[in-house]
Design a protein that fits this description.
mainly alpha; single chain; globular
Length: about 240
């Protein structure tokens, strides 16, 4: 059933807006302006002709990525844009809702469908942001900007948890993957202002997955008891869960 908006009581900057600052080949502002707006460049595209047969299959019309895109489109009522192979990224999304998926990530983890589904669902969650993309955030302090970004990522995790339940995947593989990424950053002493700590992200994923499970169980008990159904739309109940 459709997820129209996941509210984890977190509010933040749309990543699509942030990427627009330095994306699309347009002239960028000065360094301090980009830093202030937390702009991030879009990943470098990979020519599909240069993909190996195995990786190209993921991006094909019958490949896993297209299959996951259809599932996410169905449960969110949002079509999404193109799915594009890219370098130097796990996955990211731009302002036209195009989804960039890292070739290196797929080479290492492409056989783990639950993990790939979770990563795509997280990026799809960014597409669901209802904040204005042309808002001026330059008046905010560094701490406020970082807090907004972390909360936007939290919203995307909340969507991912619910979406993974509806698609039939456990969130545990994604949680393990995020934990490994967190450990690598700490080992390299790389500061991370973009995300909440791993324990918080894991809690958001698990609790949102469980919230959707409870909503579905409630809907089944309410509308399918005794083999009979009510005339009320299930999506209304699930959307309020």
């Amino acid at each position: 059933m459709a997820i129209e908006k996941v509210n984890t009581q977190l509010v933040g900057l749309p990543p699509a807006w942030m990427s627009r600052v330095s994306g699309g080949g347009r002239a960028m502002g000065n360094a301090s302006e980009l830093r202030k707006m937390l702009g991030e460049p879009l990943p470098q595209l990979v020519d599909p002709k240069n993909l190996s047969k195995e990786i190209a299959a993921f991006f094909g019309p019958r490949g896993m990525l297209e299959r996951l895109r259809r599932k996410l489109s169905l449960i969110s009522r949002k079509k999404g844009g193109k799915i594009l192979p890219a370098k130097n990224t796990i996955a990211s999304v731009d302002e036209e809702d195009n989804l960039y998926v890292g070739v290196d990530f797929l080479e290492q983890f492409g056989q783990d469908e639950a993990l790939v589904a979770g990563i795509l669902a997280h990026e799809w969650g960014h597409m669901m942001s209802d904040l204005p993309r042309k808002a001026d955030w330059s008046h905010l302090s560094w701490d406020e900007l970082h807090a907004l970004r972390r909360d936007e990522e939290g919203d995307a995790d909340g969507f991912a948890g619910r979406a993974m339940f509806l698609m039939g995947y456990s969130p545990e593989g994604m949680i393990e993957f995020l934990g490994e990424m967190d450990r690598r950053r700490k080992d390299k002493k790389i500061p991370c202002h973009k995300y909440h700590n791993h324990a918080t992200r894991a809690a958001i994923l698990r609790e949102s997955w469980e919230a959707e499970r409870r909503a579905m169980e409630f809907a089944r008990n309410l509308f399918f008891r005794g083999g009979k159904t009510s005339g009320v739309k299930l999506g209304r109940v699930i959307g309020s869960g």
